[in-house]
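Justification of resources, computational component.

The compute hours requested in this renewal are based largely on the per-chain cost of generating structure records like the one below. Each record pairs the submitted sequence with a full structure-token output. That output is archived, and it is also reused by downstream analysis tasks.
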Amino acid sequence: MTSPARRHFQRVTAALAAADAGDQPMQGAAYELMQAALFEDYRRLKSTQSMERKAEIKREILPNYADYVAGVLEFGQGAQDDVLMRVMLWRIDAGDIAGAVAIARYAIKHDLNPPDQFERGTAAIIAEEVADQALKLLDAEGADVLALVTHLIDVEVLTRQADMHDQVRAKLFKSLGYALRAAGQLSEALATLERALELNDKVGVKKDIERLEREIRQAEAQHQQQDAADQA
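The structure output for this chain reads:
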């Protein structure tokens, strides 16, 4: 385990490097150290075939980058930072959506580019990857539904003005709609799924919309019956 002194040193050196870089690409000893660690971790992940195991490895290694990321986010001026962008994606895969969104805010504010193999922009990547991860988490037992609603709303607001394919934005609204439904916010879920359908009629929510409409009608009927009984 890294000592508190070592963690403080990593955070401070990252902050200084980010401040010194300005809006130029990141460089310096702190960044090069993280790049070297990233290369070794990336190679380890590439040699692993199981997606489940990859996610486990990412959860294992991500704390090693936490202090570097904290320093950059605190004092960075928008320098292109491939380590930061890779950590953002790994955090999504590991289920740390809150941590990924924290980086995404900085990345979108400063117009940082994603890693080279991605053809989409940063906003589209964060929207689609978070939507996909949220759908996975909603299918799992014990999902923190209210936290997912918050994170998905944050991503929707963060990427609202960005240009991206309608199919990507539709997926984001779909996942948000499902999270709202799981949280019991039926009317909000219905409106959100309807928006997803407007953006992409093949997004796969038509039956969910019909089901929600029935549930809302039933809930309203029960409410009216209860009101009538209370007044009797």
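The chain has eleven helices and no strands. The chain has two domains: 1-117, 119-232.
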